[in-house]
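re: ur question from earlier - yeah i can do the single chain one, its not a big deal. heres the input i used so u can compare w yours
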Amino acid sequence: MAKITNVVNTVRVLTYIVLSLSFVLIESAPEGALVTQVPGFNDTFPSKHYSGYVTIDEAHGKKLFYYFVLSEANPSNDPVVLWLNGGPGCSSFDGFVYEHGPFNFEMGKTKGSLPKLHLNPYSWSKVSNIIYLDSPSGVGFSYSANESDYVTGDLKTASDSHEFLLKWFALYPEFLSNPFFISGESYAGVYVPTLAYEVAKGIDAGVKPILNFKGYTVGNGVTDDEFDGNALVPFAHGMGLISDELFEEVTAECKGNYYNPASADCENKLVKVDQNIQDLNIYNILDECYHGMEATKTTTGNTKLPLSFRKLGETERPLLVRNRMFGRAWPLRAPARDGIVPTWPHLLNSNNVPCIDDEVATSWLNNESVRKAIHAEQASVAGGWELCTDRILFNHDAGSMIKYHKNLTAKGYRALIYSGDHDMCVPYTGSEAWTRSVGYKIVDEWRPWGSNGQVAGYVQGYENNLAFLTVKGSGHTVPEYKPREALDFYSRWLAGKSI
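and the output i got, formated as tokens:
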């Protein structure tokens, strides 16, 4: 009997030790990172929130800001997902405020009043822990004491973000064993695979801490000059935006090369295409333009255009991308506030004004009490917080992303490429074409997928865990336009289930 009692006592002690260690690990977040409340929300958080800075270069004082939302389900086991918005130059608070964050934001009742926040029933934190990262330094609340760091590009951004992840997981070691995924949209079509490549390379080299990286998702993502640049004409024709006659003419003159016209006749036909589509909302052709058709005829003179975008429209600084595909800095965004330049070079020469409104995010994140609540340092926003900034000079120096996708999927990492099928900025036609061009065998032939008892889009699966998916009726920022459907495919994909 004594032996049995001793065994029972030993088990109790060991259980207590394990539980105590688990509690210590769960509570190992950096001191002062816990967010206890945010202005505009008067209820209890459904899960814990943390935010703050990770210094990635001590000598320069280069800091990246993050907001971390724990899963509402099982944070100890659910995946950790890094979310990146694009631009380059746009804060990931775009995703937090307007897409899949824990709150829905309601505009303040009076001018200057704070938005009211309500719980978002389709938050991606329902099924995952999610890190919203402002990247690169100079974007959102991320900043550096050395302004030379604001001259950057694809490769440096990937390297810096990898450094952030290594240091972040060292601060939150309890999440190291969780499956880790990287996700983003628009110009994050470059951010995501280049960062994923750095992570995979670090794992192969045994860089500590070793991340439990499983795969990545990209929504309406910039990928390749030729595929993206040639996507719009077939899209416009398929959507009934240009006539059969014009499509046949432009196809004959350009011989399928629309992104880099080789003749004056091709150029002239492309101008006609541009004239047919220039008054549409480029981010969702089903949506009205925020300013209306007449207002789209002026860029900097429209006072309704948010300040950050008036600045972008007035500058020739290489904030975004300069190459054959992207001719100059251009602040085209959806109503969902993403500063990606269009894949269609002739829109760069039009007077088309983006159909946008970022007032809610700007008013909330420029509020001193909000910044204090989320631990944002004043030095990061000396000139006022902007959803998309002109503070950085950015070079597209990584080339086509297709080689990155091939490398990662060949190693066994899972990849989901999804597209809102009414986005004209990065049309699904280009994403469908480049995923097919990888040359993988089709293992799940094109078929509808469902949400809430309805067809929500179409999916095609390839070997090596590569899948392409469309979201019916959605624009550029899928979780904003189709939140239920977005949470459905996201949840299934994270869990490794068939979509």
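Confidence is low (pLDDT under 50) at residues 13-26, 291-353. not sure if urs matches, ping me
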